[in-house]
Amino acid sequence: MSSATAKPWLASYAPGTAETINPTEYQSILEVMERAFDRFRHRPAFSNMGKVLSYGEIDRLSLQFACYLRNVLKLEKGDRVAIMLLNTLQYPVALLGVLRAGCVVVNTNPLYTPRELKHQLNDSGAKAIVVLDNYAATLQEVIKETPVQHVVVTGLGDMLGFPKSLIVNFVVKYRKKMVPPYSLPGAVSFNDALKRGAGQNLPKVSIQPSDLAFLQYTGGTTGVSKGAMLMHSNMVANMLQVSAWFGDRIKQGEEIIITALPLYHIFALTCNCLVFMNVGGLNVLITNPRDMPGFIAELGKFPFTIITGVNTLFNGLLNTPGFDKLDFSKLKLSMGGGMAVQRAVAEKWKAVTGVALFEGYGMTESSPVATMNRPDLSDYTGSIGMPGPSTELSIQSDDGQLLPQGEIGEICIRGPQVMKGYWQRPEETAKVLTDDGWLRTGDVGKMDENGYFYIVDRKKDMILVSGFNVYPNEIEDVIAQHPGVLEVAAVGVPDEKSGEAVKVVIVKKDPNLTAEDIKAHCRANMTGYKQPKLVEFRTELPKTNVGKILRRELRDAPK
Fold first, then answer.
1. N or C: which end of the chain has fewer CB within 10 A?
2. Residue 289: how many other CB atoms lie within 10 Å
3. Domain, as residue range, for 201
4. How far apart are CA 504 and CA 488, in angstroms?
5. Angle at Cα 151 formed by Cα 147 and Cα 153, nearest 5°?
6. How many domains are there within the chain?
7. Phi and psi for 459 in degrees, rounded to 5?
8. What secondary structure, in 3-state letters, does 21-64 show?
């Protein structure tokens, strides 16, 4: 396999965009954060449920938490600490506290089942966990079968200040009954941990670029969930790459960013938390974005400048009354990632907000951002953009040969943001990381003459109809443009005649929509073999916690 690729994308960069970054500009994420604490001490850093913490307060509180971990719990450099929280003020405090202690953050999805949680705690070897009390009962079920020795429990309202903290915690626990009974002997409350760490000195810990910062577990959609080893150097590099891409569009100390995706998700962690803390921005944390009316009410309180999300989130907002009445005059960047942004959603977003929906692409294993569209984009392109600074992409065949421009093959990524490998899984690492540094993504795509990349689909999602490759994204894109459709997913199902047939599962926007309406729309817009043979209507589609549609569940559902 060739180690070098032509880089036609460099000619397509926006004027003034740097082609490379200096990945050694900072030793670690901590160096980045400490610089932000010093420069923006009095500026607001995070807001949640009406409470705002400044950079100075985040500095003080995260230091207290770090002291608790090191001096009270006696954790050492490199010990893993799981964080199982929603978007609350506790999250950045715990996150930065763990890193300042020299420990490794194991981001843990609060919606895990006991089986999934047990796997992740055992696989990571986590010695401690910070858990929201809503999910403490799940932890109780498995903790005795894991290496976890220390538990810190927190309630949703814990950092909102008196009396609001008491009121929120009371309502959540007793009115809404969102905290199932649990028993975790020896657990300490988050606020208590902060108190016990106050007034102490943090032992000096030397963090190197090659030190492990995060174990970021992949979704596990292809089997057992694996921990991607993201080093301090990976995260710093990706933060610098995204920042260089935006250039002077991002103003120091002026940005207000809406963080609705959970911070335990790599997209929000890098693009919201790290990128915007580095420039003194304010992260508005949305705890429950599924409550769309509540989400829109929160949006109305801030002159927000940036919002990130996935296609389903943008689509949900556009279809919720009141969103179109918001003030978008300060909005300058809308970033979509995590799944393909559909043309119909992008066009409606532009029509309502006046700002194009800017699509990027990446994966957990690349910290995550690999490609981005130009930030001066005015309209939807259908492309995932081009490689960012100091990043290469190639299209490769199954046997690792570089394919020429325009041909379809596997998208591969190379750059300083690519993970070291999977935690304690050398065989799995060898499947995706080549000897010359390419990360095999499992995504099928192509590159055009200008260096723009297009995803055709996931390898495993491709449908084979009578020997023709059919890519679900294309089907979904076409059907999503029908005015009667709210959401759609396309999957392949066994078919005696053609091997596989296309099945679409649709959530209606128009209650009168029929299967024949869909088929007629498809006949008008797609060649015969791509048209769905089966049309099913449902009230909702199965999704991951960040809103990705789970095609696998639809495919595996009883026919």
1. C
2. 21
3. 26-358
4. 7
5. 150
6. 2
7. -50, -45
8. CCCCCCCCHHHHHHHHHHHCCCCEEEEECCEEEEHHHHHHHHHH
Q: Which of 93, 103, 85, 95 is nearest to 55 (CA)?
A: 93
Residue 507: give its domain's CATH number. 3.30.300.30
**Alpha-carbon gap, residue 109 to 368, rounded angstroms:** 17
In a domain, 210, yes or no: yes
Please state whether 357 falls in left (phi above 0), alpha (psi between -120 and 50) or beta: beta
What is the rounded (10 degree) CA torsion for 325, 331, 332, 338?
-80
Angle CA(130)–CA(132)–CA(138) in degrees, nearest 5? 95
Least confident of 49-58, 459-468, 474-483, 484-493: 459-468
**What is the CB neighbour count within 10 angstroms for residue 538?**
14
pLDDT at 4: 44
Averaged pLDDT score across all residues of the chain: 94
pLDDT at 113 over 60: yes
Is 223 found in the same domain as 353?
yes
The reply to whether 468 falls in a domain is yes
- 259: exposed, middle or buried (Cβ count in 10 Å: 0-12, 13-18, 19+): buried
The residue type at 359: E
Determine whether 166 is exposed, middle or buried from the number of CB atoms within 10 Å of its CB (0-12, 13-18, 19+): middle
Q: Tokens at residue 320, please?
A: 């919720």
Boundary residue ending a domain (340, 358, 376): 358
d(CA 219, CA 388): 24
Token pair belonging to 458: 């996931």
Over residues 39-48, the mean pLDDT reads 98
Please write the tens of the pLDDT for every residue from 362-392: 999 999 999 999 999 888 888 999 999 999 9
Question: Can you give the three-state secondary structure of 287-327, one letter per residue?
Answer: CCCCCHHHHHHHHCCCCCCEEEECHHHHHHHHCCCCHHHCC
Tell whether 420 is covered by a domain. Answer: no
Tell how far CA 98 is from the center of its chain. 20
pLDDT tens by residue, 192-208: 999 999 999 999 999 99
Residue among 263, 282, 384, 286 nearest 335 (CA): 384
Q: Which amino acid is at 397?
A: S
Bridge partners (DSSP) of residue 258 are 284, 307
**Contact status, residue 143 vs residue 184, Cβ threshold 8 Å:** yes
Regarding whether 468 and 321 lie in a shared domain, the answer is: no
Residue 354's CATH number:
3.40.50.12780
Strand partners of residue 52: 47
